[in-house]
Amino acid sequence: MVAVQANKAHRQERIALAFLMLCAGIFVLAIAMILGFLGYNGTLLFWHDHVSPIEFLFGTDWDGFGGKFGAAPFIAGSLVATAFAILVGGPLGVAIGLFFSELAPKRVANAFKPAIEVLVGIPSIVYGWIGLTLLVPLIGRTFHADGSGLLAAGIVLSIMILPTVISLSEDALKVVPNALREGSAALGATRWETMSRVLIPAASSGLAVAVILGIARAIGETLAVQMVLGNAAVIPNGLLSAASALTSEIVMDMGDAPEGSAFRHALFSMALLLLLIAMGLIVLIRLALRKRT
Amino acid sequence: MARAMVVAPPAQAPGFTSQRARARRITDKLATAVLWTAASTVVALLLLFIGYLFVQGWSAISWHFLTANPESANAGGGIGPEIFNSFYVLILTLLFTLPIAVLAGVYLQEYAGIGRFRDIVEFSAESLATVPSIVMGLFGLIVFVSLFHWHFSAIGGALTLTLLNLPALMRVTQEALAGVPATYREASMGLGATKWQTVLRAILPSAIGPLTTGVVLVSGRIFGETAALIFTAGASVSYGASAYDFNPFHTAETLAVHLYSTQREALVPDATQIANGSALVLLVMVLVFNVTARVVGSQLTKRFTGKAS
Fold first, then answer.
1. Which residues of A touch B111 (CB under 8 A)?
2. Residue B195 is part of a domain; what is its CATH number?
């Protein structure tokens, strides 16, 4: 009797394990399928429509229906907007991470933390709407310009990546052993000296990960960017100039590009490029973390 | 959380110029002020956003607006079907995502030792988590819309969102399980339970609080997702038997997508007002999801573990 039960439990255990591994395997299958399908559809432009990858990456003429597929303006737009976001949002996010980890009294942290969580939850389309109706007119009035452009996109992205950078850098700082803080203080360092010369270096790989994930969030952001960027397929010549990004161009053109056309294939190529950038950032994170151990 | 930190008075020992000590103290004060300002600014920004959306959107909100069908050319359209579709796509997404993500999280946290399969799964999850949502949307377009000939459909949108949110929910599960004390596992297995019985009857119930909190927070993000849905669930609503169409193979424009299509291409004269109202409803839903996550999570923790969280 007992043996029968034990047998049954044993069988249950093996079935459960197989099922759990299957679920974990779905993750592997999912990313493999995404790479496969986008890898295939994203390269059709090159071997089916015979557009050279050089023209795609460096060409500046874009006319989907006219057979011109130079995506350089969008690549430039994505890179500049992301760089702006990381230059503003990166240090600001790390600073606020420091605040939560080292300075904030418990009551202040309890009051501020939910605010950060709400910021994560606000949909990107709502950020875009606030950007379009509040920020763009403000920039327009301040600089006597059109308002939409790289500056607006950069500011919106800076705010959108903040929660990611804040919470990850806070986590990275919190795992620094207390002995380092005490040791630094015992040597007579002020609180800021401890933060800037001991904690930030000690947490550097974690902080790098926070910033890299911020980059990933910024470069893949679509609607908030599309709504404030001005959507001009030109190489930007200043922060106030209207531009277009890889993501925003995909969302603008996808509805018009007929199935099976080179136009649509070019948009898939842009998606593949974004996917490769995202995967590259993941590899970068792995490298940053490996250095630590 | 603040960590008690020993603040040493700047050294005043002989040999140190007191001027230098003063400079260090001032730098410290300045840095402290900067960090406080930075954190306060972000909170102030959030309050500004909330206030702005309420001021702009409040006048658009009415029972009619929240329940009526959208108009294609006239003023006075509502967002009823869009709100329904947002919930419908969310529920479909959770139906697919939850079992897979929770079981995969259980596997990684409780079963998988250190090994090659674990590494591959974790790398896949991390990669999946960074795929931009518009890229995921195009994958959904290629597979569900074109290859499967489902056209724009609620189920195609939900499956796309499933891929997008699997990693986040797996992470939520792992963190919830990591919070369960090892003694629970030891006690359960010491009583003769198998590992699977331990997971089902001891570990998952005591992790239910944080797990629920995480699931509700991710739900809030699914509710507002846009880029992945435009080309999978579509940017128009279908009117089946009624405005509330349960057929998962019909197009299902969600509220977030509606805000996008309204500001981009709507012909209705009151497009701005509709967009303002939609943005406010989306914000309120985010707030509701956040509050629910906290309240329900701590209630469940109390009920299942007897602890206040």
1. 17, 20
2. 1.10.3720.10
